[in-house]
Design brief:
About 3% of the residues have low confidence. The protein folds into two domains: 69 residues; 100 residues, 2-Layer Sandwich (Alpha-Beta Plaits). By secondary structure, the protein is of the alpha+beta class. Strand 3 and strand 4 form a beta hairpin. The longest helix is centred in the N-terminal third of the chain and has 40 residues. It is flat, with a radius of gyration of 31 Å. It has a four-stranded antiparallel sheet with strand order 1-2-4-3. It starts with 5 loop residues before the first helix and ends with a strand. The chain has four helices and four strands.
Length: 183
């Protein structure tokens, strides 16, 4: 068997590393640069007036979409915080499922989005109430309670649920959520 001379082996190794490096590292970068150059050329070739007109159209479409969403939100969300009604609805839901609430806290409205109403022309803003509920129940009733929250007349976003075993098939739960309304 013939021995390969060390300089030939070294040159072959460096050649192999160079070839692999080119195909794996350098070529993708070159392709990326070519794509960026093509994109830049396309942008440079567009007339500025055309681009400004397109941006203006896009801004108008966005404004129209926001107005449509706000209008829809106004019809889907209550027009006041009405914390009493919300507490009655939560209490009723828990009683219907046989879940005694051990704690219920509803704290004031925090403004999120101020806007002009699309339907009445008056100022409206999306507000949220912070809810904290505590109760002990079975896991199945917990699932039913969480599903039942969809029957309440406002959008409720659950932020956190803390569940700990209470023994005997019961779990202690604390639910933190937001309830939304328009004002």
């Amino acid at each position: 068997m013939a021995k390969i001379a060390p300089p030939v082996l070294t040159i072959a190794t460096f050649s192999l590393i160079f070839i692999v490096g080119f195909w794996v590292i350098i070529l993708p970068e070159l392709q990326s640069l070519v794509m960026a150059q093509n994109t830049l050329t396309q942008v440079e070739n567009q007339p500025v007036v055309s681009t400004v007109a397109k941006v203006t159209r896009d801004q108008q479409k966005t404004a129209d979409a926001v107005k449509a969403v706000q209008s829809e939100a106004e019809t889907l969300l209550p027009a006041s915080d009405n914390q009493y009604d919300l507490s009655v609805q939560l209490d009723s839901l828990s009683k219907n499922l046989g879940i005694p609430l051990t704690g219920l806290s509803i704290t004031g409205g925090t403004g999120l989005i101020a806007s002009s109403s699309a339907t009445s022309g008056t100022a409206a803003s999306l507000q949220k109430l912070t809810l904290t509920l505590s109760f002990t129940t079975s896991y199945d009733n917990l699932k039913k309670f969480l599903t039942g929250l969809t029957s309440i007349d406002r959008y409720i976003q659950i932020n956190q649920i803390t569940v700990t075993s209470s023994g005997g098939g019961q779990v202690s739960c604390q639910v933190s959520a937001f309830a939304y309304y328009m004002s």
